Amino acid sequence: MKTSTIALTLSATLLAAPAFAGTASGCIPQHPLEPASSFPSLPGRLVFHSYVSYGDGGSRLFLYDFAAKTLTRLDSAAWNITDPMNAHFSPDGKRLVFMGRQLGNWHVFVWTPGSPQAPVNLTSSLGGRNEDPKYSFDGTQLVIKHEGDLYLGQWATDGQSVVSWQAITTDGWATEESMPYLTPSGKYLFFVAGTGASMRIRRMDMATKKTTTFSTPPDGAHEYYPVVRDYSTYFYTRTLANTGNDQILRHPIGQATGKPEVLALNDCDRDNSDAAPVDEDLLAFSSDAYDSTYELVIGDLRNGKVWRIAPGLISGSDGRNKLGANYTARR
Length: 331
Known about the structure:
The protein is built from one helix and 24 strands. With 331 residues, the protein is an all-beta fold. It has a single domain, classed as TolB, C-terminal domain (Neuraminidase), CATH 2.120.10. The strands form six sheets. Strands 3-2-1-24 form a four-stranded antiparallel beta sheet, with no helix packed on it. A four-stranded antiparallel beta sheet has the order 4-5-6-7, with no helix packed on it. A four-stranded antiparallel beta sheet has the order 8-9-10-11, with no helix packed on it. Mean pLDDT is 92; it is low at 3-22. Keywords: Signal.
């Protein structure tokens, strides 16, 4: 998601790239929505945040239950946490980590949805600015951004505290690293290096710490928000310099070269970002193609069809952007 939106027509030819076998590829201008009556049946839950603008003090956390068709606001004034955002489910679906501000500082917290207890601050011992938390696939580790570097935390057996933190990068703000995401085996770590137009996706071998630049965008474009789905695939967002529009791309985890696939669920003329894998076929994401703000939609990776998520509950009438989605099928 960008801080500003430029809604210009984007050439589908410019974005064209080889598709994965059996899938639709390349964005679609004025991408239509599918009727709510054909929305896919899903068993899980989606957590996301909403705000008018980043860091405005008004961010809120929400949980949408697809089976029950209910929307619940999670954050509470009793938490003494402002701007909760970027939540991520534990692999078993029982806990959430998220970032938020407490006593003026950005920290990372863990919380059990529905618990009367306030979230636990996991980074009070680190101090400084802490962001972008993501569980490892086996649930034993946590990666975060801390003061411009990436840190790896080892969970205690109760899952409510981190017993140790290890710095993965150590150059501070000299080269800002952010948005870390481990692969299922923990062998690799995807992350973003740089800021603004210099943002590039990199992959680190966790054993050797060797880093490979994993994105070669067109001149002036930049890339961010890598999200690993499984052993073979990750998604990320590319912002094109000539239009300012965001597009979601798919790329093989083991292949640093070659063109990524621009997904057919993208609207060429608008912004599409914050990919959240639902299963092998479906991807939740945020788009401003259907309202004046970023709204939550689900796209089919096989054919590019897109549905608005819970249009009666999650709408743009409040003028708030809905971002940072994460889905779990477990409870």
